[in-house]
Design a protein that fits this description.
InterPro entries: EF-hand-dom_pair, EF_hand_dom, LPCAT1-like, Plipid/glycerol_acylTrfase. This protein is α/β, with parallel strands linked by helices. The protein contains 20 helices and eleven strands.
Length: about 400
């Protein structure tokens, strides 16, 4: 029925090579992943167990079909889910019981097939042989690519159905047996399999990951400038251990006074407790030293890190800027601090910020304002009403 559904929609599936048995390769590694239509490979390969995000399983119709394959569900936002998923993959791949093969799209997200992005290591932790599987869509018009900023699923489905015919090629490459070095190093194993598949597909590889896509998407969504440099900075912070240690977040939570606005490399490294002689530290500093004068705005650096990591809305950005720029607490901020906070979060001019400050004051002699009253002052201005668009209860309360 699955095959007939694709045929009825004009999608011709061509299979090249031979699918290995579970005894030969317990894991199928499929790439590039570029569309929801890649799901057709499930029908071709005899319903292997798939690794899939939990949101897909919640769909009332598709979720039932996914459950039929005895999948391993992944919660992308749950830090413990990754370890649980790896454990389950290892158990199934090495089990003597009659489990189906495990199918994994190691890129972890959809791309436009122009390259292979970094493979996640989950498929390679068991250290067992894998069979690489390549997917191609050799059509004159691309009506299937489903990426972060492209057309939605319904539009792509409609465009594909309007074609007289479309084709999908699935090629099973020879089983890849890992070396002893690859068995002990899943990242090396993943990298070598990716290189092999890229050669078969005749496309390059790229070091971008799903996390990079998520960061760029969030930066665009929140109108945070220089998204590409944010990704590079995230990689460097990860290398320096700042991401895992949540250093910047800890600094904001424990601070007792306002951060120095401009710091040099030595001060930057000292505050973050990293080695200033480390090349990654110097490169991270240079990324934020846009004027090239050997100094960076440390508050802006902290705000960018915090907003990209934690903010989901414009309102979250404003709250984050208060945390970073305030001196006493989230709920109290003076005029100069408010100028900086609203500049970072809303790119607001000084004159506008001062008007918000005056409107948020309870008493004429006040030198600081409360966070909630600032939100009320923003909500009263039509040009900033979009901040509360996704949170009507907050707007109602503040007004």
């Amino acid at each position: 029925m699955g095959r007939l559904t694709y045929q009825a929609g004009g999608m011709r599936i061509v299979v090249r090579g031979r699918q290995a048995t579970r005894a030969e390769a317990p894991i199928l590694v499929v790439a590039p992943h570029s569309t929801f239509m890649d799901g057709g490979i499930v029908y071709i390969t005899g319903f292997p167990s798939i690794i899939v995000r939990r949101e897909s399983g919640l769909n009332p119709f598709i979720g039932k079909l996914i459950n039929y394959t005895q999948p391993v569900y992944v919660w992308r936002e749950d830090p413990n889910s990754r370890q649980n998923t790896i454990k389950e993959i290892i158990e199934r791949a090495t089990s003597k019981e009659d489990w189906p093969q495990v199918m994994i799209f190691p890129e972890g997200t959809c791309t436009n097939r122009s390259c292979l992005i970094t493979f996640k290591s989950g498929a390679f932790y068991p250290g067992v042989p894998v069979q690489p599987v390549c997917i191609r869509y050799p059509n004159k018009l691309d009506t299937v690519t489903w990426t972060w900023e492209g057309p939605g699923a319904l539009k792509l489905l409609w465009l594909t159905l309007t074609q007289l015919n479309s084709s999908c090629e699935i090629e099973f490459l020879p089983v890849y047996k890992p070396s002893e070095a690859e068995k002990t190093d899943p990242k090396l194993y993943a990298s070598n399999v990716r290189r092999l598949m890229a050669e078969a597909l005749q496309i390059p590889v790229s070091d971008y990951t799903y996390d990079d896509c998520r960061i760029i998407s969030r930066a665009h969504q929140l109108n945070i400038p220089r998204a590409s440099t944010i990704v590079e900075a995230h990689k460097l912070r990860n290398k320096l251990g700042l991401v895992s240690a949540k250093t910047e977040e800890e600094l904001v939570q424990k601070k007792t006074e306002r951060f120095s606005e401009e710091v040099n490399l030595h001060e930057f490294a000292q505050i973050l407790r990293i080695d200033e002689k480390e090349p990654a530290t110097q490169q991270l500093f240079r990324i934020h030293d846009r004027q090239g004068n050997g100094k960076i705005d440390f508050e802006e650096y902290i705000f960018t890190v915090m907003a990209t990591s934690n903010a989901n809305s414009e309102l979250d950005k404003v709250e984050t800027s208060f945390e970073v720029c305030g001196t006493k607490s989230l709920f109290c901020i003076n005029k100069m601090e408010l100028r900086k906070a609203l500049k970072l979060s809303l790119n607001m001019p000084v004159e506008e910020s001062d008007k918000i400050f005056e409107n948020a004051k309870i008493d004429f002699a006040d030198t600081a304002v409360n966070f909630e009253f600032v939100l009320a002052a923003l909500a009263a201005r039509a040009e900033y009403s979009h901040i509360f668009a996704g949170n009507p209860e907050t707007r109602k309360k503040n007004i």
